[in-house]
Structure prediction request, 198 residues.
Amino acid sequence: MFNANKPPESDLPSVGQLLRSTFIALCTALVLLVTIVLPAEYAIDLTGVGRLLQLTKMGEIKQQLAAESFAAAAASAKDPTITSPEPAAANTPARSDELTITLRPNEGVEYKMTMTSGAQVQYSWRVVGGVVNFDMHGTAPGGASEVSYKMQRGVAGDEGMLTADFDGKHGWFWRNRGTADVSITLRTSGAYEQLTRA
Prediction:
């Protein structure tokens, strides 16, 4: 077995060198925390570097999504209708709706239909004035099941057939990440009970 020789003391760093290296590492970590981490994670930009690098916008989006997620969870917990079963698909008459929604920059909105398992809805929506990010998804009563059918960023519209995987509320969440107002026109037709803002 090979044993390395102990290096001479002149090759080892002195206490002063170690302290200096530790101080430099701490300063570097502090600079990265203030200029990169805080803006990107919490939208806290103490120096203006985060906004220059567009990291503050990322942090604002994260904070906004976290707040919306918390609010949605709180609303779901308070919703007295979540314990009532959805009606059978055979009893859901076909209907159709058309609505237009305006979204300001960074604003998001969610619309859902009450559907039963296997029910189908033909849909189309178009954006005027820009593009949006969207998530077409469903949530069962009480949050027992959740599914994302389709999710895309920066699109001007979509169309197709939505088939409910389970009894519950199914629909779309849109967000305008642009710098100008946009309007979304949604058309739906099929077996659902109501189309409402969630």
